[in-house]
Design a protein that fits this description.
By secondary structure, the chain is mostly helical. About 60% of the residues lie in helices and about 5% in strands. The protein is built from 31 helices and 7 strands. Strands 4-3-5-7-6 form a 5-stranded mixed β-sheet. The chain has a two-stranded antiparallel sheet with strand order 1-2. Helix 21 links the parallel strand 3 and strand 4. The radius of gyration is 28 Å and the shape is globular.
């Protein structure tokens, strides 16, 4: 036990323990939402280099936009899996990423040691290990966690280097060069770190000049700094095909693209559904506030107060200021430019290590100022107890621990209605493995499994003949399947409040804190699917019979009500059609398909004003519904209002410039 009394030895023990635990925990990780497309892109990158740049597939990515990422760690793990002959590539990737997560904790603790000693490093390691969001992403997020490693390693070597600016050590210069290169090789945001270095090295030089404590000449100093920046930049582009095609323009183009990423998705935030490019500017900062251990906030406040006190050294003050700046600036930048962000704050995971250092160094500073051993022990014990809720959450909910919310978000059930939970689909693995075992106990060999996520990797080695089909949750009745695996992310909050989730037929729930994040469903009736087939064959009376039975078996089957209403419309039963669409709308208030077909029903019944009201309500809730803009324009044309018809068509084509029906109508109106 005497060995453990040394803070240095405690740091070593904690790091060694995590190095064992984290790879083991990664074995349970599911395939993340982006992982499959990044793996496919990595294969294209390898083909690019294998063909000496002749195969351009890696830089032709109109759907995924992945050419704008260096994603060097994805590429490296893919290359290693080929060289080592590894078949289970996803497990290999997850193990590798857990080591990157561990290295991130290592460099975070090293920077804490530099700023405040080994006690601060102990607090740093404990907070990082007790952070469910960071730990959860460490097991399968091969983009944001490696970027966070590059970011904190760059800060470590940057601060080390400017601490010895007059006598730069080769290990610090080399470490900084490689760290900044690694950061840039993951995402174009790594250019930000190069700018940090130029700015803070220049600030340090000026401070030393003012203190008459600088023997450096400006030109030799500038040359050294420029060499480090240039080498970092060039090395960072070495394994990035798009950047290699034009090393000056393309990285800058990629940086601009990241500020306004073209993919927009719907997000649940504060109980409302937003498009990701229309979220409130405080989206990221609020998500951080409600998802990290609460103890960090008072400790950071203490750190700011401590910083405002007179510092013995201007250089030391600058180092602490760097820490605060690299936390605040990304938030400020994304808020000012109103960046397109989604998936909570995973895109800003890189600010978490410096945030933890800020908290840990302030706790160490506070304890160092107290002489009474009992009070110091009490503060340390209170700190440990403050981490207990998040630690217990990790233990109880692994491998879906990244869905953690602290008490500032309210109780977990309320938070689950107001915010996204399993937005990266980690729960699907557990659900798929359970269903695979369940199916293999059955006698039948022909099983059809549907899901709103790709589950082929999990079920491909089954000893049963399982056919897979992808279906959005709200279209599940239009597809032929026996079992379904559906994650919760796309479910309307109103349905959860009405207890329509999990759906009828659920035989197994994957939960966090008692909240279902993924449901395994056994189909209760095939009448919804048969009704859809009958509708497509224009056998509307038969479709109505099937769909009536389907809605009786499962009154919560949204698509069955929609198809039933459409079938009634085809048979000119307007009142019955309206009732069917209204029934669906009761389950999901503001449900776009319901309101759209209610508008169509009103039009067929000659109720123009009512149809217009429905269209307006749709666009108020979803101003990117280009189909609604077209339908509304057609209504305006019927009313001889060509001015507003053209305006609506222009809005439609701004969202979808290639929408042929809108283009055709606009040409007709303007001829």
């Amino acid at each position: 036990m005497n060995w453990l009394r040394s803070p240095r030895n405690t740091v070593y023990l904690l790091l060694a323990t995590l190095l064992v635990i984290m790879p083991i925990m990664s074995l349970d990780a599911g395939i993340s939402g982006d992982e499959k497309v990044h793996l496919e892109q990595a294969e294209l990158v390898l083909q690019y280099f294998a063909s000496w740049g002749q195969d351009k597939s890696a830089i032709h990515t109109p759907v995924t936009n992945l050419k704008y990422y260096g994603q060097s760690f994805d590429n490296l793990t893919t290359l290693l899996s080929h060289l080592l002959g590894i078949e289970d590539i996803y497990t290999f990737r997850h193990i590798c990423n857990s080591i990157i997560g561990w290295l991130c904790i290592l460099f975070t603790s090293r920077l804490a040691i530099h700023l405040s000693g080994h006690r601060a490093a102990i607090f740093t390691i404990l907070i990082m290990a007790a952070s469910p969001r960071f730990m959860g992403h460490s097991f399968n997020n091969l983009k944001d966690i490696p970027f966070a490693l590059g970011y904190v390693a760059s800060l470590f070597y940057m601060i080390k280097l400017i601490s010895h600016l007059q006598n730069i050590r080769i290990q610090h210069a080399l470490g900084l060069t490689l760290s900044m290169a690694f950061t840039l090789s993951i995402r174009p945001g790594g250019l930000l770190v190069l700018c940090y270095f130029i700015f803070f090295a220049g600030m340090t030089f000026l401070i030393m000049q003012k203190q008459n404590n600088n023997t450096l000449q400006i030109m030799p100093f500038a040359l050294r700094m420029a060499t480090i920046v240039l080498l970092s930049y060039l090395i960072g582009l070495l394994f990035w095909p798009y950047a290699l095609e034009n090393p000056i323009i393309h990285p800058l183009t990629s940086m601009k693209m990241m500020s306004d990423y073209p993919i927009r998705i719907r997000q649940l935030f504060e109980g409302e559904i937003y498009w990701s490019d229309q979220l409130p500017r405080y989206y990221l900062i609020k998500y951080v506030i409600i998802t990290i251990p609460i103890i960090i906030f008072p400790l950071c406040l203490i750190s700011v107060i401590e910083l405002l006190k007179k510092q013995k050294s201007a250089i030391l003050f600058l180092q602490k200021l760097i820490l605060i700046f690299v936390i605040i600036f990304p938030f400020a930048y994304t808020s000012i430019v109103h960046s397109n962000v989604y998936g909570a704050w995973r895109h800003l995971l890189f600010i978490y290590p410096p945030l933890v250092i800020l908290a840990s160094t302030s706790l160490s500073w506070l304890i160092n100022r107290i002489n009474a051993k009992s009070i110091r022990l009490g503060i340390s014990l209170a700190f440990m107890l403050s981490l207990l809720p998040s630690v217990l959450f990790i233990i109880k909910n692994h491998p879906i621990e990244y869905t953690y919310f602290n008490r500032l978000a309210g109780n977990y059930k309320d938070a689950s209605i107001n915010y996204e939970l399993d937005y990266y689909y980690h729960s699907v693995r557990k659900a798929s493995l359970w269903l695979k075992e369940h199916i293999e106990k059955k006698d039948t060999n022909q099983i059809k499994v549907a899901s709103n996520y790709g589950i082929d990797v999990y079920l491909k080695k089954s000893n049963r003949a399982i056919s897979l089909v992808y279906t959005p949750y709200y279209s599940r009745g239009n597809t032929d399947w026996d079992y379904g695996i559906f994650y919760r992310t796309t479910i309307a909050p109103a349905q959860i409040k009405q207890k329509l989730w999990p759906p009828a037929g659920t035989i197994k729930c994957i939960k966090t804190q008692g909240v279902t994040v993924c449901a395994i469903v056994k189909r209760q009736t095939y009448d919804d699917y048969r009704g859809k087939i009958a509708y497509e064959k224009a056998n509307y009376q038969q479709a109505i019979k099937h769909l009536q039975r389907a809605t009786q078996v499962d009154p919560g089957n949204e698509i069955a009500w929609i198809n039933l209403g459409k079938s009634y419309l085809k048979n000119n039963h307007y009142k019955k059609a309206k009732n069917a669409f209204t029934q669906c709308l009761k389950m999901i208030p503001q449900y776009e398909p319901s309101m759209y077909y209610l508008a169509q029903t009103a039009l067929l019944h000659g109720e123009m004003e009512k149809a217009e009201t429905y269209y307006q309500e749709i666009l108020e809730n979803n101003n990117k519904s280009y189909q609604t803009y077209l339908a509304y324009a057609q209504l305006k044309e019927l009313l001889n209002d060509t001015t507003n018809a053209n305006r609506l068509l222009n809005q439609c084509l701004m969202i979808n410039p290639h929408y042929k029906r809108a283009i055709k109508m606009k040409r007709r109106l303007n001829n």
